[in-house]
């Protein structure tokens, strides 16, 4: 078994999408002053490696607390744009930039989630048909091609959340 971390590290001042809140990570308690260490976090809900709920781009659509936990993990596959047969019943991930030209294929398969470098219009369209999206993933080149893996990308339990940073992990059984 191989565990692959697909998550970006969250660090003070990291790059964010233009207009999103800055990331601030500050030590507020130290061992010397309080006998424990504590950090204060300030960031947007779409910071770093994150998932998007349908409500992110569609008013009144499903929020994080509307979605069952099963929507955030499951069998998955890294697929290539040129492949003719993308598998059904799995999360689908792309190592290439993906645009609206893939929407009809994805809509026909209705994967529980899609991840990768998705164009904004594709992301909006997928969320519009209740397909959860994952963006800000890294180390995708380490995923096997043509072989299923288990993906886990649990969001924070934000009430009425439109999205959340996640610790995205792929588990490959060899």
By secondary-structure content and strand pairing, the structural class works out as: mainly beta
Main sheet attributes: strand count, strand direction, barrel closure: 9 strands, mixed
Examine the secondary-structure arrangement and name the CATH architecture: 3-Layer(bba) Sandwich
Shape: globular
Q: Report the top-level CATH class.
A: Alpha Beta
Q: Kindly give the count of domains.
A: 1
The helical percent reads: 10-25%
**Low confidence ranges:** none
CATH topology: Glucose Oxidase, domain 1
Number of strands: 11
> What is the N-to-C order of secondary-structure elements (H for helix, E for strand)?
EEHEEEEHEHEEEE
Give the strand content: 25-35%
In DSSP terms, counting alpha (H) and pi (I) runs of 4 or more, how many helices? Answer: 3
CATH superfamily: Putative cyclase
GO molecular function, one term: arylformamidase activity
Protein name: Cyclase
Pfam family, one: Cyclase
GO biological process, one term: L-tryptophan catabolic process to kynurenine
Write up this protein:
The chain is mainly beta and 174 residues long. The protein has one domain (2-9, 44-172): Putative cyclase (Glucose Oxidase, domain 1), CATH 3.50.30. 11% of the residues lie in helices and 31% in strands. It has 3 helices and 11 strands. The chain has helices at 31-34, 103-109, 120-128, and strands at 2-5, 24-29, 38-42, 50-52, 73-79, 91-98, 113-118, 132-135, 149-152, 163-165, 169-172. The strands form 2 sheets. The chain has a 9-stranded mixed sheet, covered by helices on one side. Helix 2 (103-109) links the parallel strand 6 and strand 7 (113-118). It is globular, with a radius of gyration of 17 Å. InterPro entries: KFase/CYL, KFase_sf. This is Cyclase. It holds the Pfam family Cyclase. It comes from Paenibacillus agaridevorans.
């Amino acid at each position: 078994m191989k565990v692959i971390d697909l998550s970006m590290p969250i660090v003070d001042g990291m790059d964010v999408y233009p207009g999103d809140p800055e990331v601030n990570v500050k030590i507020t308690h130290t061992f010397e002053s309080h006998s424990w260490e504590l950090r204060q976090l300030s960031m947007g809900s779409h910071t770093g490696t994150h998932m998007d709920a349908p409500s992110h781009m569609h008013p009144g659509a499903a929020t994080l607390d509307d979605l069952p936990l099963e929507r955030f993990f499951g069998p998955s596959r890294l697929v290539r744009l040129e492949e003719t047969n993308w598998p059904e019943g799995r999360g689908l991930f792309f190592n290439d930039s993906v645009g609206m030209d893939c929407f009809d294929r994805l809509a026909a398969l209705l994967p529980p989630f899609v991840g990768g470098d998705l164009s904004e219009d594709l992301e909006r369209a997928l969320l519009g048909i209740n397909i959860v999206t994952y963006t800000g993933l890294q180390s995708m080149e380490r995923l096997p091609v043509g072989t299923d893996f288990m993906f886990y990308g649990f969001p924070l339990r934000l009430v009425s959340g439109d999205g959340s940073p996640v610790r995205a992990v792929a588990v490959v059984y060899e």
